[in-house]
Specification:
Strand content: 25-35%
GO cellular component, one term: cytoplasm
Number of domains: 3
Organism: Alteromonas sediminis
Number of strands: 16
CATH superfamily of the largest domain: ATP-grasp fold, B domain
GO biological process, one term: SOS response
CATH class of the largest domain: Alpha Beta
CATH architecture of the largest domain: 2-Layer Sandwich
Protein name: ATP-grasp domain-containing protein
Oligomer: single chain
Shape: globular
Structural class: alpha+beta
GO molecular function, one term: ribosomal S6-glutamic acid ligase activity
């Protein structure tokens, strides 16, 4: 029996949405919560013959039965002995590795793409080499270099180097050496000049592009519950760039965030390999889950 596997909790609205869509398209769907492993689910691997099995809710599936996998969010694995240290977590991750790296399974996206997403300094430069324009950016923890960058750009934002938190504006007190010396002792930072006046999000699904302009007064449109959304078509050169970035980053699908200035210049911000799409789909009517289902089944 061919199975489409979803990594996540089907109680989550986005997981439920894609599971329903896949079942409507005739697929057998199963959900794997990594946080349930190894307490509730199990894995078997025979390296001498290269056979693997996933034991999930009283069912067993050969790795060869799993045709594709959709990642939404990879949760931490749990164990009754979690307090004994990190060694057990490493044991669990190592046991899962034959499944997570199985070449016969179509991963959307591959785990390597998820790992690469955490290396945003390299990704930004990679995007530039693929033809993208990015905002002026400083990444590091040298107070003097950070201050020089802030003096060159009157309006700036900051965010974590790896991501995982909302973008914040750089305020006046953060532009002083005393503050930078104190803050940058704790962690490096990404500083960017604030560019553009408009946000555009593009979902890249294979060769299909679905884009919308997101009008908001918020620095990060995700914070605005009343964001205004308008479906747009990208210029051909930006559409081709979006596909190059998706492929170049090792992804099959992603969401790319752009900023656009008054002259029509597109600035690349990031490409997310595990984007939220449910709200975007509800607001725009664009068939993100349908196109994602096609990628998983074909």
């Amino acid at each position: 029996m061919a199975v489409t596997l979803i990594v996540g909790d089907e109680k989550e609205y986005q997981i439920h949405c894609i599971a329903v869509r896949l079942r409507e398209m005739g697929s057998e769907v199963r959900c794997l919560q990594l946080s349930d492993f190894p307490l509730k689910n199990a894995i078997s691997w025979q390296p001498d013959c290269g056979q693997g099995y996933l034991h999930l809710n009283n069912e067993s599936f050969s790795f060869n039965d799993i045709k594709s996998v959709y990642w939404h969010r990879a949760q931490a694995c749990q164990s009754e002995q979690a307090t004994t240290g990190n060694w057990l977590k490493k044991e669990v991750q190592s046991a899962l590795s034959p499944l997570l790296n199985c070449l016969s399974i179509r991963w959307i996206n591959p785990i390597s793409a998820l790992q690469y997403h955490q290396n945003k300094p390299r990704q930004l430069n990679h995007a530039v080499r693929l033809g993208a324009v990015i905002p002026p950016t400083y990444i590091g923890n040298n107070p003097r270099c950070a201050l020089d960058f802030l003096r060159q750009h009157s309006v700036c934002i900051f965010k974590p180097v790896q991501g995982g938190a909302l973008t914040q504006p750089v305020c006046h007190k953060q532009r002083h050496m005393d503050h930078l010396q104190s803050a940058l002792r704790l962690a490096p930072v990404t500083l960017q000049a604030k560019v553009g006046t408009s946000n555009v999000r593009t979902f890249v699904l294979g060769n299909t592009l679905l884009s919308a302009e997101l009008k908001t007064d918020y620095l990060d449109f995700r914070e605005d519950s009343n964001v205004q959304v308008h479906v747009v078509t990208l210029p051909d050169n930006i559409a081709n760039l979006a596909r190059r970035i998706c492929r170049g980053f090792g992804m099959i699908w992603c969401a790319i965030d752009w900023r656009i200035d008054a002259y029509g210049q597109f600035y690349f911000l990031e490409a997310n390999p595990c984007p939220h799409f449910y709200r975007f789909e509800q607001l725009t009517g664009l068939p993100v889950s349908e196109e994602l289902g096609r990628l998983l089944l074909h």
